[in-house]
Amino acid sequence: MPSFDQVRFRLPRGARADAALAGGVFVLVALAEGQRLSHGGDAMASLIASWLLITAVCGALLFRRRYPVTVGWFTVLATGAYYLLSDIDAPLIMVPIVALYALAAQGRTQAAIAMAAAMVIGVSVGPLAGNSDINGTAVFMLTGWLVAVVALGSVRHSRVAYAEEEARLRATEERLRIARELHDVIGHNISMINVQAGAALHRLKKDPAQAEEALGAIKASSRETLRELRATLGVLRQVDEEAPTAPPPGLARTDELVASAKLAGLLVRIERTGAERSLPAPVDLAAYRIVQESLTNAAKHSGAGRVTIRLAHADGELTLAVEDDGEGAATRPAGSGGGSGITGMKERARALGGELAAGPRPEGGFAVRARLPYEITGEPKWSGVTDDQGPAGG
């Protein structure tokens, strides 16, 4: 037995809807014209002209999507001519009203207003042509209907335009987010691989053991890069794959960044203050990526030897700072363009309602400082002053 969704009635759309409307109006007008034929007394030429106009007006509706303005003006003028020839109050006026609404819904407001004004003027001068059925009330009611039709069409156009613009903005934001993720994931690991490869080449003859250690780190970094790249592409493709076994990027994986930086020749120290809480996933990811990008820049651009990471948990916000003893801003990339370098870190902080500043320190070196607000969702895990990880920087 077919389901309800398969058998339920569906209204026609597009050209089929226009054909159904044209056919329905033609039938209604034909029924009204039948009364005129039964009464008799009208000249045959007038009857033939009326039927030709009815057929032309209803048929023109089939072409309104291809020639909207031309069809609109034709239906307005032809309908006006029909009412001059016939004293039957037939519903043929529905056709120009539909054309009028369609024009306004497409954003052709000026053409729609001009046609509505022509219809009102034409009806207003009707009594001059001998039509005693038209009075001030009829003109007022028609004006109100036409104003409402144009207004509804304009509202429809505005809503469609707003929805399209919102969709474009969402797509742009998603592209920037993906670009930031790919830059932070691949850029960090590839930069570390580059540094470690250079170290391996330098130590290959002098210290084969350290060269072997650097090559092992390259293998691990490349495997991690491939895993994260597959995970990102899997999300984009929305395919059903096995759930990743590694924990998601967050401050809990800071030790991995420290270990990678150590192999790149950096001495990293982590200082934690405040009562640590469970961070919301977006905040945790942003903090991890900021630390990751800062360590990448320190290893790749500044020639730093020591880096200090400070994480301060306060009520409702996380404050972090990454400071190194390198060459400051002289060799740092400006980070122009969305999703890269310092610009990408600033975008991450702003997306959470926070802020990020990066620049040289007065005492030398470079510093990245960020404030990431969040809602308090859990009890403190621990409280402490400092927690050193990695080689001491003192």
Automatic annotation (TrEMBL):
Tell me the ranges covered by the Histidine kinase domain, including all copies.
Answer: 289-376
Organism of derivation: Streptomyces sp. R41
This chain belongs to which protein, by name? Answer: histidine kinase
Q: Does the record bear Transferase in its keywords?
A: yes
Q: Which lineage is the organism of this entry classified under, starting from the top rank?
A: Bacteria, Bacillati, Actinomycetota, Actinomycetes, Kitasatosporales
Q: What class of enzyme is it?
A: transferase
Transmembrane ranges, per UniProt, are: 44-62, 90-105, 112-130, 136-155
The GO terms describing molecular function are: ATP binding; phosphorelay sensor kinase activity; protein dimerization activity
Region described as Disordered: spans on this chain: 325-345
Q: What EC designation does it have?
A: 2.7.13.3
Q: Which reaction does it catalyse?
A: ATP + protein L-histidine = ADP + protein N-phospho-L-histidine
Top-rank lineage group of the source organism:
Bacteria
For this protein, the record's SUPFAM superfamilies field holds:
ATPase domain of HSP90 chaperone/DNA topoisomerase II/histidine kinase
Q: State whether keyword Protein transport applies.
A: no
Q: Which GO terms describe its cellular component?
A: membrane
InterPro entries, alphabetized: DUF7134, HATPase_C_sf, HATPase_dom, His_kinase_dom, Sensor_HK_TwoCompSys, Sig_transdc_His_kin_sub3_dim/P
Q: Name one Pfam family in it.
A: HisKA_3
Q: Which UniProt keywords apply?
A: ATP-binding, Kinase, Membrane, Nucleotide-binding, Phosphoprotein, Transferase, Transmembrane, Transmembrane helix, Two-component regulatory system
